[in-house]
Amino acid sequence: MEVHQVEIVMSAVRESQYPTDDLPEVAFVGRSNVGKSSFTNVLINRKSFARTSAQPGKTQTLNFYKVENQIFFVDVPGYGYAKVSKKAREDFAVMIGEYLRKRQPLKGIVQLVDARHLPSKEDIEMYNWLISEDIGLPVLVVATKADKISRGKWNKVEADIKRSLQFNEELSDFEIFSAETKYGKDNVWDWLEARMLD
Ligand code: GDP
User: Which of 29, 85, 109, 119 might form a disulfide with 123, Cβ 3.0–4.6 angstroms?
Assistant: First the structure.
């Protein structure tokens, strides 16, 4: 999709604040600093629409971006925060859990991982939960920052990440991505359009 129009619609901290437009939603998840804002900005052709470099301790909200009046991108704040209180972390985990499990317009989930490293324990736990029956939505794993790895190693990176996640080929798909070169952008959009906009 060639994106011309994007609105930040809202930051929500509770269900009553989620949009009621009845458009399909895709959630973007990943640990802080994985490159989620950069990924979002490439998909929507903006330089700095989504915030880059999350600040630890900032208010944690679900951010909804309405794209071309057709789909909401839902930025789920990075897991792996240490600087907020335990209570705030738990409240937030409950909110995300309920959003991902129960949100009716949610049609798919993109999980970002860093192509340079094997998935962390949290990445693996998140992936396994996302493909479980508890959620039951299509999952796209995106290995980002691929420009930091030579092209000749991409197949190995994919194989290593998949092995580490115990990747399920039936329930999920995989793409290599770079926000620097925009490699993978069209494939990600194809995946979104096929799963969200049919
Ligand atoms: P977020 O916290 O997940 O939203 O991550 P950001 O998008 O803010 O990115 C974190 C850092 O990684 C920033 O310094 C980005 O410039 C950098 N970054 C993100 N994506 C890429 C990429 O594809 N390639 C390279 N080389 N750097 C990236």
Answer: 119
What is the CA(145)–ligand 1 centre distance, in A?
Answer: 7
- 143 domain residue, yes or no: yes
Q: Is 184 a pocket residue for ligand 1 (Cβ < 6 Å)?
A: no
Q: Which atom of ligand 1 is found nearest the CA of 148? A: 26
Q: What pTM did the predictor assign?
A: 0.93
For residue 30, the domain's CATH number is 3.40.50.300
Looking at ligand 1, which residue's alpha carbon is closest to its atom 27? Answer: 145
Residue whose entry in the numeric block shows the structure tokens 């630890």: 56
Residue 172 resides in a domain: yes
